[in-house]
Design goal:
6-stranded mixed sheet, 820 residues, rod-shaped, 9-stranded mixed sheet, single chain
Length: 820
């Protein structure tokens, strides 16, 4: 956090950032204020502030640095054009303002009349003089509670030390009538170290140190036991006062020229443009002076003080508030300049209770404080104990003491939300403050700031779940995704969120389940654009939900902000119907296949919802005979599980590699016939058997018997060859539609002669076979006469049975005979 505190209270700046504000139109004032010509004639010249006709939009409202550079060039050309018109006239001490269309100078009557006639001049104003307008005050505005909540303004500085920059502008650049008091070789201007040190030309130069302590003082061992509002003791003092030996009723005093204030404000703007170094939130100007303006005269105040207003608008465009005292003239219905400027933040004084008596009752508007509708806020201003030069402390009263409370509060608020605009913070302080009614005739009621309430009123946590939409159905694994940011993030760092935790809670009630965390974030340029800073671009998050049992859940994402390492925001996707995602493949046997035992059954099974591992721990296999018949299933066995399947791991993730299963069905496991084989995977996620894989198969068991002749017998031709043949896989019929018979002569010889003998007669009744295997196998007998074989040889008769189930000669039997 960076703050500016002039040594005599002209400006206190605290933590800052750019925030786009609406454009401000150029102000048009009277050509020459009343009495100024006469003074110029009698005094030989007067200091003035001149507005030049040039396009002007506060730079924070411009789209780019290139546009700002073009505008500055246009201002320089307009200023040069006006100064060219003054050639030959008495003009001295010219001081340009680089970023606003004004310059300050001293000039005589003739030069003023020349400007009055110029179409290139928009305003002429006298360079006026302004006068310098805690242990109880900090608790009064609840800043101590903000400190407890870790809000000190500390995220706004990157340099170490109490004073991080200094400047001095004095005696209107030599055009004034006082004595310049800047240290160094050039007493009218300096930005060197020590430029903002307390002056030594008058007895009491403690005003600036006092207000600096209020805004940003930090207690120390052996100190007073209390802090300032933004208690980090980091300031930028800017001295804008001039010494007048007899300027205040014949007594020595210090006063400030408007042009010196404008240069101070310009310096603030220049420092705020230093990336990553000076983060400035507010300027304190505890000064003011006549003339006085009523509520009806605010437009005149803006016009008469067009140069100061332009400098204030410039700062406001980059998110820097200019906080100014309302004045000490006890006016009701009017106030000083420059606090009356519409874009400034005007602050009046309330009594603190520190020794308040009589006309200063605690918690009321101080009797010396100007009160008007133009006052924005109230803060403690009577009997404020704060620091003074020399390491000491002193008590002061006046509206000068009120603005630094607000300036310090602004730094705290900027820590809360670095991108907050002046309007946003002002609205927060206004809406949350304690209403204080002025007991004097004006009857104005204004808010006494409450820093902790204002902090709570400023939203900084923003989060959204974009998918899944509420009340939708999702199959695991699925993504829950959105974006999250915290606008308390230090400037130019990141989205302010470093972790997302995702939880699932059953919609009907029950224990919540922690699903996991997200710690890496993706690009969301749309979010960065919407919230006004590229640092919020990488705010997208995505988490894969898995491991939930089927059911309806409220999915909640919690975002942890980096400011205080707490989960300060949450978003909910409600009533999400979560389904499991078991996947299974039965690779063998193929569906519609004909198989014979023994055969292998195998494939793979996973549950993609598993947070780790394959999500499956066992496979049970059932066989449903004659599918559709209602016959109870046969439990075929438990498959071995955990076999390596690199192809599955490659497709779904390495955790699913060991997902293979296998089961061998040996003869006798399944009677022959058609089956629906069903493999049920058991999900570790669901704790139940889930959707199975199936294959429709037919188990074939062909059989063939040769009853006659007997093996190694000596039949005499012709002799019968007879027996029976079936395929038990058939539901009807015998399952055998053809029998072929072949003969091999002398089968033991190297090249036995082979002959096709023909097809036996089939369909012969075999009640014994029907009784053994089923009635539809009764007509399974076959028979034929064998004749024509050469006597004296050994023959092997080979009988082949053709299965209607397999469509092949699936069974073969042989018998050897010796033909005499």
């Amino acid at each position: 956090m960076t703050r500016v505190v002039p040594a005599l209270g002209a400006a206190i700046l605290a933590a800052a950032f750019v925030s786009v504000q609406p454009g401000v139109r150029a102000q048009q004032g009277p050509r020459i204020p009343a009495g100024l010509l006469a003074r110029a004639q009698s005094e030989g010249g007067v200091p003035v502030i001149v507005g030049v006709r040039a396009g002007f939009t506060p730079e924070g409202n411009l789209a780019s640095t290139a546009e700002a550079a073009d505008q500055r060039a246009g201002i320089a050309l307009a200023r040069a054009r006006v100064l060219d018109q003054l050639n030959g006239f008495v003009v001295s001490n010219v001081r340009p303002f680089e970023t606003i269309p004004f310059f300050a100078a001293k000039m005589d009557e003739a030069a003023l009349r020349q400007l009055e006639a110029s179409p290139d001049v928009t305003s002429i104003a006298e360079d006026k003089l302004r006068a310098p307008a805690l242990n109880l005050s900090v608790p009064m505005i609840h800043a101590d509670a903000a400190h407890t909540a870790n809000y000190h303004g500390f995220l706004w500085t990157v340099l170490v030390g109490a004073v991080i920059s200094e400047a001095c502008y004095s005696n209107a650049g030599g055009a004034g009538t006082g004595t310049a008091i800047c240290p160094g070789l050039t007493p009218t201007s300096s930005t060197a170290a020590g430029a903002g040190a307390p002056c030594t030309v008058v007895t009491n130069c403690s005003h600036g140190t006092h207000v600096a302590g209020i805004s940003s003082g930090l207690d120390y061992p052996g100190g007073p036991g209390f802090d300032g509002v933004a208690n980090l003791d980091r300031t930028i003092p800017i001295q804008v006062f001039t010494y007048f030996p007899t300027g205040c009723s014949g007594a020595p005093c210090v006063l400030s020229y408007d042009s010196d204030q404008m240069l101070g404000l310009q310096r603030v703007f220049a420092l705020s443009s230093t990336p990553g170094v000076f983060h400035i939130a507010s300027v304190n100007m505890s000064l003011g002076g006549p003339p006085f303006y009523t509520d009806a005269d605010q437009a005149a105040c803006d016009s008469d003080n067009a140069g100061v207003k332009a400098a204030i608008d410039q700062l406001r465009s980059v998110g820097i508030a200019t906080v100014i005292a309302s004045g000490n003239e006890a006016l009701t219905g009017a106030m000083d300049a420059p606090g009356c400027i519409s874009t400034a933040v005007a602050v009046g004084s309330v009594n603190t209770g520190a020794g308040d008596t009589g006309s200063f009752p605690t918690g009321q508007v101080s009797s010396f404080s100007n009160s008007t509708g133009m006052v924005d806020l109230l803060a403690p201003g009577y009997l404020i104990n704060s620091s003074v030069p020399g390491g000491l402390f002193g008590t002061k009263a006046g509206t000068s003491m009120a603005p630094p409370h607000v300036a310090g509060a602004w730094a705290v608020m900027k820590q809360r939300k670095p991108l907050a605009s002046v309007t946003e913070i002002l609205n927060a302080l206004t809406s949350t403050g304690t209403p204080i009614s002025d007991g004097r005739p004006s009857g104005y009621t204004k808010p006494l700031i409450n820093v902790m309430n204002a902090i709570d009123a400023v939203a900084v946590d923003f989060m959204n779940i974009e998918t899944p939409a509420p009340a939708t159905t999702r199959v695991q694994p699925f993504s829950i995704a959105g974006w999250a940011l915290n606008m308390s993030a230090p400037l130019n760092t990141n989205s302010g969120v470093d972790r997302i935790d995702v939880w699932a809670t059953p919609s009907g009630g029950g224990a919540s389940t922690f699903l996991g965390s997200v710690t890496s974030f993706g690009a969301r340029p749309d979010v960065g654009t919407f919230f006004g800073a590229a640092q919020f671009t990488n705010s997208g998050w995505n988490f894969t939900v898995r491991g939930l049992r089927q059911g309806t859940y409220n999915l909640t994402a919690y975002a942890r902000n980096i400011f205080n390492a707490t989960f300060s925001q949450a978003a909910v996707a409600s009533n999400i119907n979560v389904l499991d995602d078991p996947l299974m493949s039965l690779d063998a046997p193929a569906t519609a296949s004909i198989i014979m035992e023994p055969f292998g059954l195998g494939g793979w099974a996973i549950d993609r919802a598993a947070a780790a591992g394959t999500g499956v721990d066992t496979i049970h296999v059932y066989a449903y005979p004659n599918p559709g018949s209602g016959t109870p299933p046969i439990f075929a066995g438990v498959a071995g599980y955990g076999g390596s399947r690199p192809d599955v791991g490659a497709a779904f993730g390495a955790q699913f590699t060991n997902s293979g299963f296998n089961l061998t069905l040996i003869p006798g496991n399944l009677p022959p016939g058609p089956y629906l084989l069903v493999a049920y995977p058991h999900s570790t996620v669901m704790g139940a058997f889930t959707t199975p894989a199936t294959a429709s198969v037919t188990v074939s068991e062909p059989n063939l018997s040769i009853d006659t002749p007997g093996n190694l017998t000596h039949p005499t031709q012709p002799f019968p060859l007879a027996g029976w043949s079936i395929d038990r896989g058939a539901l009807t019929g015998t399952g055998i539609d053809r029998i072929d018979v072949w003969v091999y002569q002398d089968p033991a010889s190297p090249s036995p002669a082979t002959a096709y003998l023909g097809n036996p007669v089939m369909g012969i009744a075999r009640p014994d076979v029907g009784a053994a295997f089923g009635s539809h196998f009764t007509n399974s007998g076959y028979s034929m006469q064998v004749n024509g074989l050469v006597n004296g040889h050994t023959y092997r008769l080979v009988v082949y049975g053709h299965s209607v189930i397999t469509g092949t000669f699936a069974i073969v039997r042989t018998v050897d005979v010796i033909v005499p």
